[in-house]
Amino acid sequence: MEMRCEILGADERLQGVVKVRVPGIYGRKGDPLPRRMAKLVEPAAVALQRVYQDIVREGGHLYISDMFRSASQQQKAHEDWKLGRKSAFSPPSCSSVHEAARAIDIDAFDTGIGHRRVRELLNRHGWTHIVETLTGPECWHYEFREERWEEYRAQHGYAAMARAMKEEIGNRAGLTRAQRQEEEIRWLQASLNKLLRTRLVVDGIYGEKTKEAVRKFQRRHGLQVDGIAGPITKGKIRELLAEV
Ligand SMILES: [Zn+2]
């Protein structure tokens, strides 16, 4: 297919996300990236169009190997990595910008004009790299943060940014109730670690230590001490995190 990023229209299930058509690496190289992956928030898609224009003008090309992942796809990629079926690290669902439709993985080793130049062009249009090297692991990963998310990251950290980005587009489909609960508990554990300086294992299991930390938090903030993280307790946590 032609070396460009074509915007096909809004995705009906995700907020502010558009479907795109870009050259992928699956099947015959250059065939469109599979549709379930080919999604970006609109400003990211527009920026990627400009990147393609610049690259083509210089006689280069750009193949995309990964883009959007639904919450369940991300979880599966993580399981595959844990089991050694996949060598590139994939974080569990909820901490990847791919789930926010703001990330691409490129074929960094086949660009025609060199990865260094492609990186310059990506950067110029607002696509940020996450590792400095041009050949090491994750050198192929780029994400579109915009200023407001850069600020958010500076204040709350990378994982919180990725989570909030993902929430913004409403990428929840595919998560089972149990997975959602687990996610909530992981968030709770990580938050308590931050606020109480406890060292809870962030495993998504509501065990005795987590319960005890919740009680401690409730005592400290004059809440009802029942060890249950209900809406009031969680609300207080969110309030404090916003100030941390
Ligand atoms: Zn990536």
Keywords:
single chain; 244 residues; alpha+beta; Muramoyl-pentapeptide Carboxypeptidase, domain 2; Muramoyl-pentapeptide Carboxypeptidase, domain 1; 2 domains; four-stranded antiparallel β-sheet; three-stranded antiparallel β-sheet; binds zinc ion
Explain this structure to me?
It is a single chain. With 244 residues, the chain is of the alpha+beta class. It folds into 2 domains: 6-153, Muramoyl-pentapeptide Carboxypeptidase, domain 2, CATH 3.30.1380; 177-243, Orthogonal Bundle (Muramoyl-pentapeptide Carboxypeptidase, domain 1), CATH 1.10.101.10. It has 8 helices and 7 strands, in the order βββαβαβαββααααα. The chain has helices at 42-57, 71-82, 115-124, 146-156, 158-169, 177-196, 208-220, 231-243, and strands at residues 6-10, 17-21, 39-41, 64-66, 103-106, 127-129, 141-144. The strands form 2 sheets. The protein has a 4-stranded antiparallel β-sheet with strand order 4-5-7-6. α4 crosses α5 (158-169) and α6 (177-196) crosses α7 (208-220). The longest helix is centred in the last third of the chain and has 20 residues, at 177-196. The chain starts with 5 loop residues before the first strand and ends with a helix. The model has no long low-confidence stretch (mean pLDDT 90). Bound molecules: zinc ion. Residues 66, 98, 103, 105, 141 line the site of zinc ion (ZN).
